[in-house]
Structures are given as structure tokens and as C-alpha cells.
Design brief:
The chain is mostly helical. The chain folds into two domains: 31 residues; 215 residues, MetI-like fold (Orthogonal Bundle). Helix content is 71%, strand content 0%. It is flat, with a radius of gyration of 29 Å. The two termini are 57 Å apart.
Length: 297
């Protein structure tokens, strides 16, 4: 066999219609530079979020100091912190937070399970899809707190009544977002799952849920927010009736006693728990799943 002869290299043919102006690299400037310590710290999202929270606290404290508002109407941040410490010192606040979170997590978990069953059935059988869309259109606009009188009549003055309305507040929001996310899964991903022989529940677990996880997480966060609102609103009524309860009852009881510092303490604890759940649970799951997979920026 004859050796392959290399073609001689030739210079490019000059083309007068193309202008080539050489650029002095000294005029380009610095293309890449290392970040300073302040910039590296500011790029951390939790630092930016904490900065925003500190700004709100500073504005709150400065407003009460400068405007000279009576503490009976609008206590300062320092007065609210003192009230929180006093409530924790005699274990009142800890007991109320425990009661609220226990009932809330129970209702939220049951609502998630019910939503998962409904959406899985709707993704497999067409008749269940019709049932889910019709039920969501019927019950999703219905305020959960409106069912509290019926829940008390059916289940009595107990935690089961709270769990019942919490499930109603969670299941429709989560189911609607999850079903919309499942409907948005591309046909290519569906065909890949079918080619691997996935059917039924395994198809939903391995194909639909990962592909629609961003929408599912959004529905879970909406359901959590609805559950929080429903829980506090229900405790304002349920606690006033049963002489007990959690943070909602703490707010109601102290408002009747004109102890506005403790009212603000209860409101502040609700906000604080909501922020902790958002960043410690939901944001962590997002960073390790949909953000890592490139589904969100």
C-alpha cells in the first residue's frame, strides 16, 4: 500500500472585500478578574436574604423609635423580642408552637398523600382525570375556614377537626399543580418510560415526578402556605371555643388582654417558622434537585 501523501499547506487567498483590522490586546482591558472577599460573600444567597431581613428589622425598630408610637399600639422589635423570651421562659410559647406544628404537619402529610393518590390515578385513568379536574374546580375556591363549623359538628372539638380542614386546604392546591406539571411532561420522556416497560405507579415515580418536580414543589409550597393560614385562622375560632390551642390561640388570648407585645410575639414566631421551613426544607430540596438538574436558574 502506498503511503498517504499529505497535501501541502497553502496560505489563505487574500480577499480584498474583507477588511481585517488588527486589535491591540492592550486596549481590550481585563477580561477576567478574581472576585473580592465582599463579592464572594454577597454571592451567597442566604447572606443576601439575611441582609433583607435585617433591613426590615432596622426599619421596624427605627419607625417605632422615631415616630414615638405607644407600645400598646405598635411595639418595637426589642419589645417583641423581650416578649418572646418571656413566653419561652415559662414554656407557654414552646407548648403552643408544639401544638400548632403537630396538627399542621399531620394535616399537611395527609393532604400530600391524598393529593399523590388522586394525581397518580388521574395520570393513569381518564375517568379519574375528569374527577380530579371537576373536584378541583369545585373545592379549590372554597375557603377551608368555612368548613370549620361543619368539622366541629361532625368531629367535635378536637384536633381531628383541625386536621380535616387542613387536608382540604392542602390537597387541592398540591393536586392541581402536580397534575398540570404531569400534563406538561414532553412526549419524548413519556415514550422513553414506555420503552423501558414502565407502567402505572412506577411510570409516575420514575418519569412524571422527576420531570415535573419543579411544578410539584411549587404546589407543595403553596399548600404549606395555605395550611399555615388555615391553621392560624382555625385556632382563632377553635381555641376561643375549646380554651386551648397553639399560636392562633396565643394571639387571640393576648389580644383580648390587650397584651399587644405577646400578639406581636406570636405573629413574629409564625413568620420565623415560615422562613425557616422555606429555606431549610424547600430551598434545600430545590438546590439539590431542580437547580442541580438545570430545570431552574
Amino acid at each position: 500500500m502506498s503511503a498517504v501523501r499529505e497535501r501541502p499547506r497553502t496560505d489563505p487567498v487574500p480577499r480584498p472585500e474583507i477588511e481585517r483590522t488588527p486589535i491591540d490586546v492592550r486596549h481590550i482591558g481585563q477580561i477576567e478578574r478574581p472576585l473580592s472577599g465582599i463579592e464572594r460573600v454577597w454571592n451567597v444567597q442566604i447572606v443576601r436574604n439575611l441582609t433583607v431581613l435585617v433591613m426590615f428589622v432596622v426599619i421596624w425598630e427605627a419607625y417605632t423609635r422615631i415616630a414615638d408610637i405607644p407600645p400598646l399600639l405598635f411595639p418595637s422589635f426589642t419589645d417583641t423580642c423581650v416578649a418572646i423570651v418571656d413566653a419561652f421562659r415559662d414554656h407557654r410559647m414552646l407548648a403552643k408552637i408544639s401544638f400548632t406544628l403537630t396538627s399542621l404537619l399531620t394535616g399537611y402529610a395527609v393532604g400530600l398523600v391524598a393529593a399523590a393518590v388522586l394525581v397518580s390515578a388521574a395520570s393513569i385513568w381518564r375517568v379519574w382525570a375528569d374527577i380530579l379536574t371537576t373536584a378541583t374546580a369545585m373545592f379549590n375556591p372554597l375557603p377551608s375556614i368555612a368548613l370549620l363549623p361543619l368539622a366541629m359538628l361532625w368531629f367535635g372539638l378536637g384536633t381531628f377537626s383541625l386536621v380535616f380542614i387542613l387536608v382540604h386546604s392542602v390537597v387541592w392546591a398540591v393536586a392541581l399543580n402536580a397534575y398540570v406539571g404531569f400534563q406538561g411532561v414532553s412526549p419524548t420522556q413519556r415514550m422513553i418510560g414506555h420503552n423501558y416497560g414502565l407502567r402505572g405507579v412506577m411510570f409516575a415515580i420514575k418519569i412524571l415526578i422527576p420531570a415535573a418536580l419543579a411544578t410539584v414543589l411549587s404546589g407543595m409550597k403553596i399548600g404549606w402556605a395555605f395550611a399555615w393560614r388555615t391553621m392560624i385562622g382555625a385556632e382563632l375560632v377553635f381555641g376561643a371555643t375549646a380554651r386551648g390551642g397553639g399560636l392562633g390561640w396565643h394571639i387571640f388570648e393576648n389580644s383580648e388582654l390587650l397584651n399587644i407585645r405577646q400578639v406581636f410575639a406570636g405573629l413574629f414566631m409564625i413568620i420565623l417558622i415560615g422562613v425557616l421551613v422555606e429555606y431549610a426544607i424547600f430551598r434545600t430540596v430545590e438546590l439539590r434537585t431542580v437547580r442541580r438538574w438545570g430545570m431552574q436558574r
